[in-house]
Amino acid sequence: MEGVAGEQRKITKFRLKLHFQGQTPMDDEQWKSLLEVIDGQTRRPVPCGFIVDSPWLPGWYGAEVSEYLSNETVWFEANRRLIETFPDIWFLPGFWSEFGMCTEPSAFGARCIFPKDEFPFAEKILSGIEQADRLKKPDPGTDGLLPLVLNRLKWAQPRIEDLGHRIRCSVSRGPLNIASFLMGTTEFLTALKTDPGQAHQLLRVVTDFLKDWHDLQRSTFPSIDGILVLDDIVGFIGEEDFLEFALPYLREIYATDAAVKFFHNDAPCASSVRYYPEIGINLFNPGMQTPLVELRSLAANRLTILGTIPPRDVLAQGTPEDVRSAVRHLLERTPDRSRLILSCAGGMPPGVTTGNIQAFISEVNAMTGSGSFHG
Q1: Using one digit for the tens of pLDDT, what is the confidence trace for 353-363?
Q2: Rounded to an integer, what distance in angstroms lies between the CA atom of residue 188 and that of residue 176?
Q3: Which phi and psi angles does 166 have, rounded to 5°?
Q4: Exposed/middle/buried for 1, CB within 10 Å: 0-12, 13-18, 19+?
Q5: DSSP of 69-106, one letter per residue?
Q6: Domain limits for position 76
Q7: Which CATH number fits the domain that encloses residue 193?
Q8: What is the pTM for the complete model shown?
Q9: Measured distance CA(323)–CA(327) in Å, rounded
C-alpha cells in the first residue's frame, strides 16, 4: 500500500507543478494554441501531444479492453482521469469514441471479434477483388457500430463540456486501411497491380462512405473543427501507386473547411509525405522510419509534425531517463521548433507508464520553457 500511496503523492505533486505553470486541459484556449502552432507560431514550452485510444488507455486506467469499449462509464472515466492526470498534454482527437479497427468495417457487414482483453479485429468479407462490385455503400447513420459511436458521444457531450473540453474532430480510418480490412492486406495490395480498375471501384465505395461518415459527425456535433484520418497502408505502397490509389481519395476526404486536417501514418512515408500539404493535410503523426529533419525537408516545412520519440523501445519499454535522453536528443537536433508538437512516433503504445509520461513532459519543459522543472 505504501508503494501505491507514494506513487499517488508523486502524481499529485507533478500535477500541482503543472497547475502553477498555468496549464489547463484542452479547452478553447488550447485549441486556439494548436491552431497557432499549425500556423507556424512557436510556443514555449514546446507543446506535447499524443494520440491515445484502446491499445493503451484501458491498460493504463486498469480496465480490460472489452470493458473499455463496451461500457460508456468506464470509457468516460478513463479519458477523464487521463486529462486530469496530465493537464498540459494535448490529447488528440480527445475522448475518442471508437471500437478499434472494427469501427468502419462493421458498417460493411464485417464480423467483429472482441477478445476480453486484447485489441478487437474485423474479419474480411471479400474473398477477392472481383467481388468489389458487390459492395454497397453503407449508411453511417444506421449501419454497423457507427450509430453506437455517435450515441456514446451524445451521452458524453455534456460531461465532456463540463470538463472544459469539446468534441473537436471527426475521425475515421482511411480508405486504403478499410479496403485492406475488407479483403486482406496482401490481397488488396496485390490487386492494385493485377486489377487496378476493380481496386479503384472498391476505393470509390469506401471513400464515398467515409465522406458521408465525416459529414454526419460534423453535422451531429457543430463544435467539430478538425478531421483525423488514420491510414498506415499508405506507407506500404510506392510513390506511383500513392499518386494513383491514395492521393485522389484522400484529397476528397480532406476537402472540408475544418481548421485542423490531421493525418496518421506510422508506416514509411518518404514516398508520400511531400504530397500531404497538396491534399490539405496540415498536421501529421508519422512513424520513426524517416528522421524529423528529413520529414520537414520533404514536406517543405508545410506540415506540423506530432512526434517523433520511439514509441515502443523508449516510451513503453525504456526507463524515465531513457525517455529524457530521447527528448533531449530530438530537441538538440531541432533548433527550429515551429510546427512541432512533441510526441511519440505513432499513437501511444501499450505499456507506457505514468512515470515515463511525466519524464517526457518535464524534460520538454526543462529544455524549452521558462521556469521549468525536472520532476
Answers
A1: 999 999 999 99
A2: 9
A3: -140, 160
A4: exposed
A5: HH-HHHHHHHHHHHHHHSTTEEEESSS---BTBTHHHH
A6: 20-368
A7: 3.20.20.210
A8: 0.90
A9: 6
Q: What pairs with residue 172 in β-bridges? A: 229
CA-CA-CA-CA torsion sign (83, 66, 316, 347)? negative
- For residue 374, being part of any structural domain is answered with no
Q: How many domains does the chain have?
A: 1
Instruction: Decide if 90 contacts 30 (C-beta within 8 A).
Output: yes
Q: What is the pLDDT of residues 171-217, one digit of tens each?
A: 999 999 999 999 999 999 999 999 999 999 999 999 999 999 999 99
- Give a yes or no: residue 8 inside a domain: no
Cell of 349: 503504445
Cα distances (angstroms) measured from residue 87 to each of 28, 64, 144, 285, 353: 14, 24, 34, 21, 16
CB 48 within 8 A of CB 358: no
The verdict on residue 73 lying in a domain is yes
Q: Which three cell numbers stand for residue 337?
A: 521548433
Query: In angstroms, rounded to a whole number, what is the distance separating the alpha carbons of residues 375 and 360?
Result: 10
Asked if the structure places residue 373 within a domain, the reply is no
CA distance 62 to 71: 14
**Run of H or E including 245:** helix 239-245
Q: How far apart are CA 93 and CA 251, in angstroms?
A: 20
